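We both want to read discrete structure tokens more fluently, so let's practise on a single case. Would you supply a protein for us yourself, any chain you care to pick? Would you write everything just below, so we can both look at the same thing?
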Amino acid sequence: MSSSAPVIPSPQARAKPFLKWPGGKRWLTRHLLGLLNGSSYRRYFEPFLGGGALFFALQPEKAALSDVNSDLINVYVQVRNRPHELIRRLKDLSVDKATYARFRSADPKLNLDRAVRFLYLNRTAFGGMYRLNRQGSFNVPFGGGQRTPEPLWNENLLQEASKALKGAQLQTSDFQELLADAGEGDLVYCDPTYTVAHNNNGFVRYNERNFSWDDQKRLADTCQRLAREGATVLVSNADHDDIIRLYDPTRVYRLDRMSVLCPASEKRKPTTELLLLFDSRRTKRPAQRVRRPFGRITPDA
């Protein structure tokens, strides 16, 4: 087996997530790193990449990253390979309703053009949201002149992200395809699309279009297999008893936070979600509650 790296971010690690992403896990990375402290891994796998918060916190030398969103993966590829071209193109763009409308309705064919459009809309859309309608078109309104892409270069987000991504394999695929290569000594983090606002709706019924109950079954089976083969697996998921019974992890952590998914007209509400740990080296223990050691969570800048 190849050598393992400790789960400790490098002191030189400066890269941060460059995307504003719904359901992003920047707020959770402290807990994740704390749980993993003292362990080691050969390779890092993240099949629901999104904003990549844990990837950027770890900045592993060897990583395999994927998502089913081809535009998202294209952005990561272009940031890895062509950050200076992206910055040059973005600097030339005005931030106003007319430019925003032009980019929102555009359908560029070249990969670099698609990445410029994605980054511009991501940074100038209302609330930094990424949302597609049923026809697959971006339909978030303009966020106003106060939102600009400038942090992407003024804060060196793209430059540092490009360095962190140099050793990363990137692909558009279902999670099973990426995780088919994971195994003993690897670290896997899964953050599938889900809603935490389940209340009494029943887990199977909500969010079926994004990540169905059958998908949850496939992911649970995959996580259990990887743990048996000697991988360490972490899964973020909705706080529901059906999830705990389905996944049957080594440990269950309930994380308390304020919801960031409430409509603007509503006050944010306390909510919880699960963090499931699969570790073949540890015996099963009762569920533990992990509370934030500080106040309300607000969206990342």
